[in-house]
Amino acid sequence: MTRSSAPQTALIVAIASLASSVAFLDSTVVNVALPAIERELGGGLATQQWTVDAYLLTLSSLILLAGSVSDTFGRLLVLRIGLIGFGVASIAVGLAGDPLFLIIARAVQGAAGAFLVPSSLALITSLLQGHERSRAIGLWTAFTTGATLVGPLLGGIFVDLLSWRYAFLINVIPVAVTLWLVARLPVRDERRADAGIDVLGAAMCTAGLGGMVFALIEQPNLGWTSPAIWMPLTAGAALFAAFLLRQRTARHPILPLDLFRARNYWTGNLSTLFVYAALSLNGFVVGVYLQEGAGLSATLAGLASLPTTVLLIALSPWAGSLAERLGGRLFMTVGPLVMAGGALMLLLVGEDFDYWWQVLPGLLVFGLGLAATVSPLTATILGAIDADRSGIASAVNNAVARVAGLVVIAFLAPIVGGSLDLAGFHRAAIVTAALMALGGLIAFAGIRRPPRARIGALTRPCSRRPPGTAARVNPDGAPRRAGPAPPASAASRRRGCRAAGSG
């Protein structure tokens, strides 16, 4: 894929943000529409659960495969396929006449969404460099996370004023706009000469993740002792373990394990696990409690999170640019700790509910911490990996974030004490704060600012670089294309490889 010039930055960011935002938006917009869906289509609680779970199941199961396909066959091709599939599935959801058709359409929608996220972010990391790339990642994280937060508001407006169906049919507009913008981008895909996909590994990965995710989704309903839970969980874990073993010898691995040689990459993903578990828990609990506990309408409950969204969109680009100069560690540590403080401020919520004094202050503090965290977190993780593998690097990080949300929601009942009353709401706030604090402390202990000369070799064995070339790096530490290097002795080359591999 050829690199863009500076004037194309806005177009690249718009494409990446719109493509990812529709996938993130549909994971939350559905929550406030569930009662209306059940009233119209029937099916009881099972319809409501699987309207959400079918989307999460396919999204989580296919995202690693999608990242590998994106790196192998081209980001724009995969992006177009994902957009068309998502648009068609959204129309099918909006026109569904019975629960089974709705659930199948949601599963297809999640599968298409899996192909949108890694390819869109990889578009930024492969086409932009330096300060331009850091600011673009900041904008991308602001818009995509903002889409997640604003989802309940849009869903509430459609449910209260029009119909739940419009919450899905509206996706056709951003999908069409994004396809039009992609056609205007003067960039072409470059498929690798040795491109290929480990088909057996892909099947093992998808089935393994699918089995484990299914068990996590259904565990609250059936319990851990049910064969319908422990059998797919055990089989899924065994398949995924076999998949990881296969990736060590596969010619075209879906998940290159040497990604995790980079300290900032594996540490950043571990921090992501706790931070995004906390984000999912907070978003779910606040949205539900404001309706069922405080008695707000669906629209007002959605509006409640608007201050957090505004702060995120306004400050994320600034945080990304500042983190480029100061390093991601400071922001990845302080941001989650600030969010932990905002979560604890929700303990002010009492029986005599007052949004302005009990909820808004905590959400404002939470929004400041969120804006300081998401862009530096993404930039630090992807900055540790070569740009030509940014698709799978992004897919792994997104899979970690999605699975973190699934796990914490699966354990919602013991977290809140069985009921989301005021006491349960307070317990959830404490757990949210604890998870955020853990994410920040992990980043503080593990994130480093690698020497620039070593970045390119952190995730790529020295033997893969053509003789007579050396890795170049940008000011932010991301690798550039290899270029001519001065002659070096064999001994010095061996010393350089040993140094790079020790990170």
Can you put this structure into words, describing what you see?
The protein has 503 residues and is mainly α. Helices cover 73% and strands 2% of the residues. It has helices at 9-25, 34-41, 44-73, 75-94, 99-127, 130-161, 166-169, 172-184, 199-222, 227-247, 263-292, 298-304, 306-326, 328-345, 355-383, 390-410, 412-416, 422-446, 490-501, and strands at 469-473, 479-484. A hairpin with a 5-residue loop joins β1 and β2. Mean pLDDT is 77; it is low at 453-503.
Alpha-beta content class: mainly alpha
What portion of residues belong to β-strands? under 5%
**Biggest beta sheet attributes:** 2 strands, antiparallel
- The overall pLDDT, averaged over residues, is 77
Annotation, overall tally of beta strands: 2
Uncertain segments: 453-503
| SSE succession | HHHHHHHHHHHHHHHHHHEEH
Side by side, the strands of the main sheet go: 1-2
Overall shape: it is globular
Helix % is over 70%
Radius of gyration over alpha carbons? 22 Å
Total number of helices: 19
In whole angstroms, the N-to-C terminal distance is: 29 Å
